[in-house]
Amino acid sequence: MSGAANDTxxxxxxxxxxxxxxxxxxxxVLAFQDIHPAAEVHFxxxxxxxxxxxxxxxxxxxxxxxxxxxxVPQLAKEQGLxxxxxxxxxxxxxxxxxxxxxHIHVFGNRxxxxxxxxxxxxx
Length: 123
Ligand code: AMP
Fold this sequence. Notes:
The protein is α+β, with helices and mostly antiparallel strands. The protein has one domain (9-108): HIT family, subunit A (2-Layer Sandwich), CATH 3.30.428.10. 19% of the residues lie in helices and 20% in strands. Strand 1 (22-25) and strand 2 (29-33) form a beta hairpin. The longest helix is centred in the middle third of the chain and has 17 residues, at 62-78. The radius of gyration is 14 Å and the shape is globular. The structure holds adenosine monophosphate (AMP). Residues 9, 18, 20, 32, 34-36, 90, 96-99, 122 line the site of adenosine monophosphate.
């Protein structure tokens, strides 16, 4: 893993110190099921590079973030979200971020289920 020390729960997942239900992995990115799903399907996409939050992202990170975002529709479809989903990146204290390792929430209900309500987020 590149970047500064990462003592978050996601750092522990990346170091295989605690388990996760893996959805996808490559050299840059890991995706896994959220342990407290906010919808029928709810997974997280994280960079292997330690970036604490979206607030710390710079232009150098554009290819990595582009890859993460481009993975969203592929993984959402694979996880059964064939009819739409929601993406959230809680950022900082005012954004109610709990885990300070950048992550994209992808969540939604399966086709035939209820659409998500209003601006309901990953909390
Ligand atoms: P945030 O509030 O945006 O920082 O979201 C952190 C998310 O991480 C929450 O949705 C938690 O349910 C999820 N989470 C916390 N610990 C774990 C874990 N060990 N495995 C999977 N997801 C987790």
